[in-house]
Amino acid sequence: MTLNLHLENAPARAGSGAGQAVDPAVALPVDDEFTERQREVLDAVLKLMVAEGDGFSVAAVARAASCSKETLYKWFGDRDGLLTATVRWQASKVRMPKLPEDRLTGEGLEKALTGFAASWLTVITGDLSVALNRAAVSHAGSAKSRLGEIVLTNGPFAMQRRLEPLLKAGKAAGLLAFDDAGAAFRCFFGLVVADTQIRVLLGEDHRPDASEIAALSARATRQFLTLYGRG
Q: Whole-structure pTM over 0.85, yes or no?
């Protein structure tokens, strides 16, 4: 069977610039909805959040990114639009490894799941994601900010949309058995993230390095395949 591995329909484009270049042998390119200049602006927002939480102003973003407030409003709308774009940009850094375009094998499925898990853990344990998630949690359930909702929609829910087609392809190939792709994803989510993210969010000094992330990802994938694998 032929696999369509563009796992998520690209949202409405915020600009027409080329997407971020990546090694085509390693991973699919991240979402190209933002131009290079817009990504620079969104990185400036993330750096402000590391320094100040989400209490920054649009004027502060304009100063940090060396652009006008008018340009920010034109590109992103209001402050919530800027926050949404920032979360989408950070989440887009989680990448899916390429798979063969023909028959999906057990080895290929395991490699893809492990690669996704490693990319995901690398992103969520980095300083930028930690600052973003801490700010989101601090306002969750309050009327102060929609950041919690924005992070939930464009973070975990977006990860589910990106991974479900792979899980369904694994089922179609006879490699996985499940009744509900959403439930299978949530199991994989729990195995991959475990307590790593919450420990980092609560200030644990230790951050997993690349070798630890590789080991955690491989273990989570093996556990998932033990639960849902066929054969």
A: no
